[in-house]
Amino acid sequence: MPDVRIILVRPQHPGNIGACARAMKNMGVKRLVLVAPQRFPAEEAVARAAGADDILAAAEIVEDVPTAVAECVFVAATSARDRTIPLPRQDARAAAATLCGQAQLGPVGLLFGAERTGLTNEEVDFAHTLVQIPVDPLFASLNLAAAVQILCYEIRCAIQAGPAAAPEHRPASQEAFNLFLGHLEKTITDIGFLNEKHPRKLMRRLTRLFRRALPDDNELQILRGILNAVEKPHPPRKLSPRDPHNT
Q: Is residue 240 assigned to a domain?
């Protein structure tokens, strides 16, 4: 089984956590990450897990989404609604195939939002693609555990269909990518390019742009080197008469 991490963001009901663990175990998915759960551990979670106690016992509890996805090379976010600044969209089947392909290079994450509110725009910013389950638009609300079950089923089907083509290169981890974004935001603020009254709108667009590119570690180092040069510019290089750049 590839290292696919089911990440529940701010889950409100421990029973839903248990039901998700059961859905995961049905399909052989083992890595559960809980971001700031309201109540966990809880007896209700164990009861609803119905035998998937090992998934609950091994669940990782973290404070925020950046920590949850830090090791991941690719992240998908589930959402029933589109966003003002769009992400590439995939249905459950296509997303499962993408995740399994990227998992050949490192851990991948699948984000699920809180039961009542879903994922915030800031949480979706950590994803490379938006996953939408094709439900009836007249009743699009889907139970958290049901959504996890559908995605885990599609992941299992993708695995059984055989290995997907391996991506051409290994993307940098989300931890490295987020450090780059912080560096970028600081630099464009210092040079007066970022409008401090509306910083997130521009940063969200830049985040989506660079995330689509799936930069690797070397590419991030090049980009950060450019930012360093902007922050601490050197005097222009003097060209000699024979320098080919003079022609």
A: no
In this structure, are strands 4-9 and 89-90 parallel, antiparallel, or unpaired?
Answer: unpaired
SS in 3 state form for 183-222?
HHHHHHHHCCCCCCCCHHHHHHHHHHHHHHHCCCHHHHHH
Residues 16 and 115 in one domain: yes
Pairing of β 4-9 and β 108-112 = parallel
- Residue pLDDT, tens place only, 23-46: 999 999 999 999 999 999 999 999
Residue 144 sits at φ, ψ, to 5 deg, of -55, -50
User: The tokens 């959402």 sit on which residue?
Assistant: 79
Closest CA to 160 of 1, 53, 35: 1
Beta carbons of 127 and 9 less than 8 angstroms apart = no
Residue 102 has pLDDT above 90, yes or no: yes
What pLDDT is attached to residue 244?
A: 55
Domain that holds residue 89: 4-160
CB 117 within 8 A of CB 175: no
Q: Is the pLDDT of residue 136 over 60?
A: yes
So what's the pLDDT on residue 84?
A: 73
155/1 Cα distance (integer angstroms): 10
Count structural domains, the chain.
2
Rounded CA separation 109/16 (Å): 19
> Which residues does residue 33 pair with via DSSP β-bridges, in sequence order?
7, 60
